[in-house]
Records
---
Amino acid sequence: MVVTGICLLDLHGKDVNYIENDGFTIDAKIPMFDSNAPDSGAEMVRSMARVLRDVTFELEKSKPDLVLSGFDIGGNFAVTVAAAHMNIPVAHIQGGEVTGSIDESIRHAMSKFSHIHFPATEDARNRLVRLGENPKDIYVVGCPSIDVLVNTPSINPKELEEEFGLDFAKPFVLVIQHPVTTEAMSSIDQIRETMKALQTIEAQVVFLLPNNDAGHSKIIEEIKSSGFTWIPSLPTLKFVNLYRNAWALVGNSSSGIHETPTLKIPAVNIGNRQMGRERAANVIDVPNDASQIQLAIKSAF
């Protein structure tokens, strides 16, 4: 196991600690991001280049029979490209999905560098076939994060209410809003529209900080100065149990598309980040407009 990306950053909660606490053996840590670097698309490329270079040494050392890579994340993209060039078979989780941003390009590129495919749906499988992948190497397995949701043990809601200062009997909104890389310059305006909407509704609000795609720094600054409760990240046990008690998920995270149907809560999906994804009837799509976001959240309650 190689850990990289925001899992190593204090700003984003240093999730490497949660990985270790869960009992996994970490064989290597590859610093991907420079904390003093600019918040830009160019720095995203340089960060992937760092992993692409350094992971080759780990692959040479471990000589794996298979590289398991997933989704549309920069670090995963780097190891997928490296392994393919080193003639190591790559298995890719959740390829074939449409997401409406640079993430989609990364995801499809990873599929083309991979040899075994584990898509979540038949629609994704069919897209992989149209991309030229061998149907014999494609296995529809569903979304792995749903297994995590279903199998995570329950925490007494009273414990969570005390820890986070919440009352689950009253409306409670969990907010996860990431930058859209292709709209990085608009990130600050987009998060401000979301906050305007949240300030006009009677609900408890908890933000989880976004990833660090281009445009993230302004979002984090706005969240930290907003007066809303915010958390850099959470261990799986607490995150899932907090999620289970939310009245709605608001933002543009893929979690709103993939996981809220299982939790049976509404998802207010804002903007273009998840454009084109398959979605269930619980997803309410709205533009980056405060008045429409407000109406969507109220309808979710």
---
Amino acid sequence: MNKSTGLLLVGLLALSASFLAQTAWAKHWHIGAMTIAIVLGMLLGNSVYDKVEHRAAAGVLFAKGFLLRTGIVLYGFKITLHDIGKVGVNAVISDALMLCGTFLFACWLGIRVLKIDRETVYLTASGCSICGAAAIMATEPVVKAPAHKVSIAVALIVLFGTVAMFVYPLLYPILNTWLSPHQYGIYIGSSVHEVAQVYGAGSALDSVVADTAVITKMIRVMMLAPFLMVLSWYVQRNQAGEKSKIVLPWFAVYFLGVALFNSLNLLPKSFVSVLVQIDDIFLMMAMAALGLTTRIKAMRQAGVRPLLLGLGVLIWLMVVGFLVNVAMQSVIQ
């Protein structure tokens, strides 16, 4: 299918978001271009997008998939080995605690309390605890879930991850009494659902928070591979059938490779600056595409119990994530 229509649409949304982000109102409320891009996408996605979706879908999906991952890889040109070292063991421990705790809590809430089927809960729990839709798509062949359950899980991640993307920057003036900008970045990176949402929340604040949040998130993404191996073992132990294929998040490996390469300072700064600008464009287009594919009606069709699961996990991520990061900051200076 031709991708040009969809890419043109998300490109126009990204351009509009860049313009609106420079207005006095956006600067006063610290609303970044990434945030505006996803809002514009959601407004169109739930109104007039249906009329052009048949022509634009291929390009929009390309932006939400390939451009997002390419943007994250290119984000490595904003990061050096020194930056990764500064995040350090603090982020690794915070990520590990939040991943394990969130997955177990989501399973308990979804299966034991809300009585939702295991496949939907496993998918949603994976997305919330690791890296959103990418984790859901990687988990799908492990749990062998049907397409409609994957759609419900992705919709929950996008909806509540988008809420988190707005709430975390609003909470920053209150919570920075307990958390430094560096630790707040770890807080965002260890508890917000999607990679794009982490970037959106961090970029709405400042470069220290944004860089720390993305690095922390990418460490969390790297944990997807061992997580899937454990989940695959658990599922196969309790269910008969063929072995499931493990899907590795290679874009996270490439991100780290680019960051390591950038640490060597082999490229001219002017060229790196161009790559960073391209990266910003790709990420804004991906955010716009994410908004376009966020459908409120999909949540209505899923019923109230998945919504309660998504809301419960969001509250867990925000509250427990805050407590974990306060503790980590006091233990590891």
---
Amino acid sequence: MDSRGPVILNLKMKFIHTADIHLDSPLHRLEAYDGAPVEEIRQASRRALENLINLALDEAVDFVLIAGDLFDGDWRDYNTGLYFTSRMRRLNEAGIFVFIVQGNHDAAGQMTRSLPLPPNVHIFPSARPETRMIDALKVAVHGQSFSRAAVTENLAAGYPAPVAGHVNIGLLHTSLTGRPGHENYAPCALEDLVNKGYDYWALGHVHQAEIVTHDPPVVFPGCVQGRHVREGGEKGCMLVVMEEGAAPLIHHQTIDVIRWTRTVVDLTGANTIDEVLDRFREEFEKTVARNEPLPVIARIELAGRTELHTRILADVEYIKQALRSTAAVAFGDRAWIEKIQVNTRPVRGRVPDSGPINELNLLVERLSSSPDDLQALGDELAPLFQKLPADYRQNAASFRPDDPEAMARLLAQAHALLVQRLRKASGAT
């Protein structure tokens, strides 16, 4: 990602814009998956921060901007704060300033508010916007932290006018006009930022990197490390270069250490389980190669029309374990499967079933097409579900009787299993 914006005069500097580090963020139930590299993932945010510090030192940047959600709420212990302080000390020794606004996750924590930091680090207050100057660079950084976890007012509206003769940077944690998957915190219109007259807006809160506009640059750097499959793809920060007589250069720098991905395996026309595994291996190899040298954590989706549809659903656990085993043998520590979704479909034009199987097909079709019937089925099964062991009921892979979509998936698996057994009993294929 590379952007050229308005020309900046009488200036030569370089800075890093980052946000949403979520240092030591807890796992999203990954420990529930057998064989998950739990400790490696637990340390991922620290290793990504280490990459960011090394980038700042290697590039000899003048300052670092952190646009909120440095932490993830209260720490489990003081090690999180001590680790961050030690990294800031490295930047202090190199003469690199650090400017921070606290976001919704930071504001939700209590321990972080009394954190002692080296003199190069400044956290903007939450009561009102503040301006900090770097006189040697003629830079003015404007910012305001969140006072609480859910800030719904337009903070940008209260930011001060630009300082004459300086490069003005706005540091803000915001959803802007709203982004899917993110709470609508500190919302503002793009025009609120553009019309302020600043030279660069360093935003945070949205975990996908985006240059919203180029003149002036209004930028989300994205998070530094994906924490679940919805935060897939390359993650990192923005390295910004401003030189006299030239437009600002904005480069996205990849600093993540583990990559979350999705891989779709098309099984159209597949006739044997060996063919399923071969297609999976070939497709997953592309995913692993595309993200080297980083290890990947992947969600696998089996799709397409295949004669194996019923067989796969009838013994879905075997298929999942076969895929995991295939991945372990082929890729070792380079890849791990987070989840496998079966979204295959039966082949069109198949000779219709008759007798009991046809009656079963009609019943399942009626239930599947009616949310009310699925809800009623869930209500019937709820007492049985409550009798299952607690470990299963709390497992991320378990079904929810009150979720029609989950019931539809369960119904499809039960249907496939019954059809498979009825065909086997009748001698049909």
